[in-house]
Amino acid sequence: MSCEVIIRIFKFIPVIFITSIIAWSWYAYVIELCFGAVHSSIEAFFLLVFYHISLFFLLWSYYKTIFTKIALVPPLFKVSRAEMDQLTNMRSPDEQSRFLKTLSKDLPIVNCTINNCVRFCEKCQHIKPDRSHHCSVCNACNLKFDHHCPWVNNCINFSNYKYFILFLGYGLTYCIYVCLTMLKYFILFWRINPFNYKGELENTSTGKFHLLFLFVVAIMFAFSLVSLFGYHLYLVLKNRTTLEAFRAPIFCIGGPDKNGFSLGYRKNFEQVFGQEKKYWLLPIFTSLGDGVKYPVRKHLLEDV
Fold first, then answer.
1. In the chain, where does DSSP find H-type helix?
2. For a surface tag, which of 30, 111, 190, 275 has the fewest beta carbons within 10 Å of its beta carbon?
């Protein structure tokens, strides 16, 4: 087995862990709670229906986040071998900067470096489109790169950012649903002896462990997800990526500006979720644009 295969398997360990947690939670909730602890068949039916709806959307969005291909930089931005040879043979940084500006004069870019130079990736050998960055884990430049997430073994970027947010949202919904519907039974465990009570609870010690542990794990994940989900909703409404929140994008006109891509809350939201409301909650690609060119605030284009 080659080292590359071993590394790929190793990178999937966090995904396997999350998937195992979800699979175990299904067993604990469906088998131990609904079939083992809930006495009313009507109550169990409705618990199972809404549980599986929540689970379906969680798994769908998680799958799309993991397996959606990275949005790579299009060939238009690629520097040819001959141009690359010219660039490397130039002695001064100023000469290289002027050459890159010549190559990029017809490209749709408004971002630059702190020195007002064209953003260039030496590893991928292309001019960087606006909001794109190189991921050292995937060894590729991503369009609208947000971050690399080990829990999905994928880059979060233009192509799957909506799916990632929905995954966080549905994960939070799943945890809250489990906690709320289990609360009554969780309390009963501490009020009565579960081995003798046959009206609501009739579990073995193993079943009791599964349900108690599921309740605690769901609360822990809910607290983690509520902050992460809230933060990314904030970024969506501000039209920023995680990188841009920590390091403001630099514009050729106007310099650093965290709000340079902000168009107002509604338009910012539509940039990620699209303009058709019926698709907002579905892990279907509806983001606006092509990932290369983005609308910016008017004052950043006044001299263009």
1. 3-11, 13-26, 41-67, 81-89, 93-103, 161-191, 205-238, 242-246, 265-273
2. 190
Please state whether beta strands 126-127 and 147-149 pair in parallel, antiparallel, or not at all (unpaired): unpaired
Lowest mean pLDDT among 177-191, 240-254, 267-281: 177-191
DSSP 91: -
Residue 134 pairs with which residues in a beta bridge? 141
Token pair 């009554």 is found at 184
Active-site choice (34, 149, 155, 175)? 149
With beta carbons less than 8 A apart as the criterion, state whether 146 and 241 touch: yes
| Radius of gyration of the chain from its Cα atoms, rounded to whole angstroms | 25
For residue 156, list its beta bridge partners.
147
Rounded Cα distance, 58 and 283, in Å: 10
The per-residue pLDDT for 199 is 44
* Model confidence band, residue 205 (pLDDT cutoffs 50, 70, 90): low
Residue among 221, 190, 215, 219 nearest 28 (CA): 215
Note the pTM of the prediction, 2 decimals: 0.91
Dist CA 201 CA 186 (whole Å) = 10
Cβ burial, residue 11 (10 Å; 0-12/13-18/19+): middle
- Angle between helix axes 81-89 and 93-103 (nearest 10 degrees) is 160
Rounded distance between C-alpha atoms, residue 28 and residue 174, angstroms: 14
Catalytic residue flag (residue 141): no
Neighbours of 153 (CB within 10 A): 20
